């Protein structure tokens, strides 16, 4: 069997339009084998092969043993669980990036269940990169929160929500972004890796800036295919 590096999970948390999908799409651009659970159809719009039924998804994945970008445009718990099963096996066949958008609609805040639980708890030896988005920290299930390699925290609206996530990662509430397209990146055991992060757009492309841990100066940042910001020690 080929040896693979361990997988990783990055969770993007923030209100709608805060800037969660922007970095996720940037990571997708840098990878050639990507499967998205795409309730809003936005990856399909980017040119992913669009699948609307389980049958279509199954066929598309079966025919894609190498590079390929596939989006499952669906929005039900059953469809999500099916996607998780497919994602587990497709990544096992060959390392892939797995995007799970808008998790709160299809998972519970408690224990990660069934195929989703298996994907985030048991697929890491097969080296996937899992990118998950959710609007509120309270909606992230325990398995995901515990296994996440990093949290990308974007705009929070209420003190309640900002306080929750600040408490989870052990920082003051003033650290949590309250404006659109601002972010911080945090890793368990390491703390805040990037603060005062900001996204701007030029010619339709996002540009990232932020202050790396141990520095006081904002610098341009680029996202690597691993989902990590280049030059930042994770
Ligand atoms: N290419 C682009 N050029 C200019 N603005 C953009 C571009 N892509 C996204 N934006 C803007 O950036 C903001 C964040 O978008 P993004 O899709 O990352 O948010 P999100 O947190 O994923 O939101 P949602 O909950 O709607 O999925 C939005 O206001 C959006 O209009
Ligand atoms: Mg989004």
Class by alpha and beta content: alpha/beta
Give the ligands present.
adenosine-5'-triphosphate, magnesium ion
The number of helical segments is 7
Overall pLDDT level = 96
Radius of gyration, Cα only, in angstroms? 17 Å
H/E element sequence? EHEHEHEHEHEHEHEEEE
- Residue share in β-strands: 25-35%
Describe the structure.
By secondary structure, this protein is α/β, with parallel strands linked by helices. The chain has a single domain, classed as 3-Layer(aba) Sandwich (Rossmann fold). Helix content is 28%, strand content 27%. The chain has helices at residues 21-29, 42-45, 54-62, 77-93, 114-122, 142-147, 159-169, and strands spanning 8-13, 33-37, 49-51, 68-72, 97-100, 129-134, 150-153, 182-187, 191-202, 205-212, 218-221. The chain has an 11-stranded mixed beta sheet with strand order 3-4-2-5-6-1-7-8-9-10-11, sandwiched between helices. Strand 3, helix 3 and strand 4 (68-72) form a beta-alpha-beta unit. Helix 3 (54-62) runs parallel beside helix 4. The protein binds adenosine-5'-triphosphate and magnesium ion. Magnesium ion (MG) binds next to loops. The site of magnesium ion has 3 residues, from loops.
């Amino acid at each position: 069997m080929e040896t693979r590096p361990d997988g990783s999970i990055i969770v993007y948390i923030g209100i709608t339009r805060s800037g969660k999908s922007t970095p996720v799409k940037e990571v997708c651009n840098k990878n050639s084998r990507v499967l998205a659970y795409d309730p809003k159809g936005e990856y399909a719009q980017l040119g992913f092969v669009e699948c609307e039924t389980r049958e279509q998804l199954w066929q598309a994945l079966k025919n894609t043993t190498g590079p390929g970008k596939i989006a499952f445009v669906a929005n039900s718990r059953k469809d999500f669980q099916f996607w998780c099963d497919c994602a587990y096996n497709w990544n096992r066949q060959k390392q892939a990036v797995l995007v799970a958008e808008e998790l709160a609609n299809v998972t519970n805040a408690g224990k990660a269940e069934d195929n989703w639980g298996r994907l985030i708890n048991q697929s890491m030896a097969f080296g996937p990169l899992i990118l998950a988005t959710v609007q509120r920290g309270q909606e992230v299930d325990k398995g995901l929160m515990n296994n996440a390699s990093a949290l990308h925290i974007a705009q929070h609206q209420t003190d309640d929500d900002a306080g929750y996530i600040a408490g989870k990662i052990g920082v003051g509430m003033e650290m949590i972004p309250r404006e659109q397209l601002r972010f911080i990146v945090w890793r368990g055991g390491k703390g805040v890796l990037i603060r005062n992060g900001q996204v701007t757009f030029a010619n339709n492309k996002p540009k990232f800036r932020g202050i790396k841990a141990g520095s006081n100066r904002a610098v341009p940042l680029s996202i690597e295919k691993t989902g990590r910001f280049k030059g930042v020690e994770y």
